[in-house]
Amino acid sequence: MPLHSPTRSRRRRLASTLATVAAATLIVTGCAGSPEKEEPLGSQATGVIGQADEGAFPTTIKHVYGETTITEEPKRVVTIGWSAQDAVAALGVTPVGVPEYIWGGDEDGYLPWFADRVEELGGTLPEKLNNGSNGEIDFEQMLALDPDVILAPHSGLTETDYERLSTIAPTVAFDKTAWASEWDRLTLTVGQALGRTSTAEALVSTTNTQMEIQGSAHPEFAGKTFVYGTSLSEGDSDLGVYAPSDPRIQIVEQLGLTLAPGVAENTTPDGGFSQAVSLEDLDRLDADLFIFWGSETAEEQATLGNALMARWRPVAENHALFLSDKSLVMATSAPSALSIPWSLDTFVPALADMINR
Asked: What is the maximal distance between C-alpha atoms in the chain?
């Protein structure tokens, strides 16, 4: 069975998570009525379940480019970058515009767990954003989408883009570092933007509990150090390694493993989400385990077959895990309250197999 198949157990786990959160939300907000669905806005039907917390607006969110104030509950939400669309949908709102996921998405360009959630919400799959070859933003498309808010808490949004987008709708950029975030903080940020802080808190709590249960079931994870990187291409002399600020590190740590000290020691506060380590210097990244990803098995073979890599302890001891399933790679690279439950049943056993062999 392919690693990425959205198995029934994944669906059950995701449905269980969201049902638990929905129940928690009803308790917190006291709104025990039937799910509400908005009338279609423009040409798109927008699924909305639940409602904003009382007194949630106006709200002000700090980010790398300043502060953004949202004065009323957004109904038309556009997301840029990774993960935000998942958080929005997990909180009960179907966005009207999201990035297209050619790599890791389904045949229509949507992440499978996101598409499942939109179906649960009774919404319409949102418009996919047009991006240029370098990720340029199509501002005309943004205008046409008529958003109430634009959320980019895990993205590479430039200050120039931010200023221009802010003339269209209140825009929330990333916190400090481009393409770096923590899934729980991102969820809370999106929750604040949508006026659903109580739902976001419940969602984070439930998802954390799921990971704690999974980690507790594998005591062999405790104390194991890991490096999370990319596969090598022909001629590469450096290994790409993810820094502590990359969200995939947080997920592995929450399952009970420990990031190799050498990674943190070589990461500067403004060093971004990754670093390049010379293959000649791999010994400074002493670790028990190596997790890496790529598109093809040939990349796994090229990486593990490299003479310098083969001498590195986790590889020499056969404790390397290669992730090639694109949806699973996306789920663990851009973790969210939707993708984490979707991936746990596959990712956790794969980690255990690597450690126990």
From this structure: 63
3-state secondary structure of 97: strand
d(CA 111, CA 124): 14
In this predicted structure, the answer to whether residue 161 has a pLDDT above a threshold of 50 is yes
Q: State which amino acid sits at residue 334.
A: A
The CA distance from 136 to 165, in Å, is 12
Question: Of the candidates 229, 220, 253, which has an alpha carbon nearest to the alpha carbon of residue 304?
Answer: 229
Q: How far is residue 30 from each of residues 19, 62, 110, 167, measured CA to CA in Å? A: 16, 29, 33, 36
Question: What's the Cα-to-Cα distance from 329 to each of 3, 136, 163, rounded to whole Å?
Answer: 10, 24, 32
H-only helix segments in 46-156: 84-90, 112-121, 139-145
Instruction: Classify residue 90 as exposed, middle or buried by CB count within 10 Å of its CB (0-12, 13-18, 19+).
Output: buried
pTM of the model: 0.86
By the 8 A CB rule, do 175 and 185 touch? yes
Q: Are 249 and 277 in contact (CB under 8 A)?
A: no
The per-residue pLDDT for range 13-51, each reduced to its tens digit, is 444 544 444 444 433 333 333 334 344 333 344 678 888
Count other Cβ atoms within 10 Å, centred on residue 285. 23
102-338-288 Cα angle (round to 5)? 85
Question: Which residue in the block uniquely carries the two structure tokens 């927008």?
Answer: 46
Classify residue 41 by its DSSP letter: B
Q: Cβ neighbours of residue 61 under 8 Å, at least 6 residues apart?
A: 67, 68, 69, 70, 172, 189, 192, 193
